[in-house]
């Protein structure tokens, strides 16, 4: 990169916050996917004005800008596939207000999601979106990916809690979109345009987020199955029966074994599948819901039901769920994590097809995920240095996307499109939908600077 640009960037944010050496750039070349592309320079701005100035500078020199939160993304959104500036947003780390009267929080987007959730809880309220990466992911990353999580089945996902946003547009102007509180608004909700836009339409610098009442009590249950098919069927039966648990997570046998091997928490390693179910509400309501959950699970073939009786038992089960990623990482070095999502009623069919696909391509596949949302996470455990295996992985991934769409689902329930799914996006949108998405991108970002190579920007 020209020294002139580096000098100008250092003048804008201070030389401590501009990194140009290869060893630094390599640290910002990857996310939780498996390919790496180093940026030409890493810049860590401290406020919205600096971001606006950086984006204007990028426009002047026609440099790509890739926003980066904590880089836990599973579709490669934060990977600067065309080089340019890696714009690291972690210095925007202030919770500006938790307004309990209006039930709104105002937060800078580099704040870690769990820090925010904890601060809201201390104020006596609740912010439900809870991606598995909550301890690391930033609020900006969760907005840009429209993150979901186990609680999505009852409480919805990030878009359900975004009221308004402050955004730096691709030409460097700063704009507020949406609302500052929960009400009707004048005109369309432009804020939603940026939710799930993966850093391709603007840099989100501040968010107005909706807060809700904290549930008074909760109960965690574990249902054990001898058949993955029965577990999958339980999910659709449960929702059809009118009971919406807070979470409804599935783990297949290979996942159970991997986690037990990693954590030793006493999971039933001979089970073909388990469902981890949580209900919440008033003490009276959860007792009734738990009773109903047990009844439906048993009717669908659960061989054993465990009810966590202490907070420690509940924590143990949730630690097991959170340990899936590191546990699988121990089996094979490259974890291809998909989140093809189908309508709940199609979960049994999708689970069957996933197993067939794994067998057909001779791949190790674990199946787990937010089954209550229809959001399965088939993870292929492979080795990126084994080229023959990676070719089979590519074919298997294409086939599982086709299957999800065939069953009325989507390529991505929550992980986004990034560079990894961009080649498949047209399968879902169709030519016209894709052309419209691309046109919108070109109207907002005329120089196509923000996050090239992702979503419609290919
Ligand atoms: C172990 C593990 C578990 C996970 N579990 C879940 C889960 O349950 N649910 C789920 O939805 N996801 C999950 N994820 C995926 C990932 O954590 C989420 O997508 C998360 O929201 C990404 O946040 P981040 O700060 O790491 O964003 P990054 O990875 O840094 O960036 C993601 C995208 O957002 C853009 N971006 C980041 N910040 C901004 C900003 N301020 N303005 C504009 N664009 C921005 C980037 O350019 C990129 O396109 C998981 C990941 C891992 C590794």
UniProtKB/TrEMBL annotation:
Domain of life per record: Bacteria
Q: Does the keyword Hydrolase apply?
A: no
- Could you cite one Gene Ontology molecular function of this protein? oxidoreductase activity
- Cofactor(s) this protein requires: FAD
EC identifiers of the protein: 1.-.-.-
Top enzyme class of this protein?
oxidoreductase
Pfam families named in the record: FAD-oxidase_C, FAD_binding_4
Residues in domain FAD-binding PCMH-type? 34-214
Oxidoreductase recorded as keyword:
yes
Keyword field: FAD, Flavoprotein, Oxidoreductase
> Per its UniProt record, what InterPro entries does this chain match?
FAD-bd_oxidored_4_C (IPR004113), FAD-bd_PCMH (IPR016166), FAD-bd_PCMH-like_sf (IPR036318), FAD-bd_PCMH_sub1 (IPR016167), FAD-bd_PCMH_sub2 (IPR016169), FAD-linked_Oxase-like_C (IPR016164), FAD-linked_OxidoTrans_Type4 (IPR051914), Oxid_FAD_bind_N (IPR006094)
Q: Which PANTHER family match?
A: GLYCOLATE OXIDASE SUBUNIT GLCD
This one is known as FAD-linked oxidoreductase
The species this protein was found in: Sporomusa acidovorans (strain ATCC 49682 / DSM 3132 / Mol)
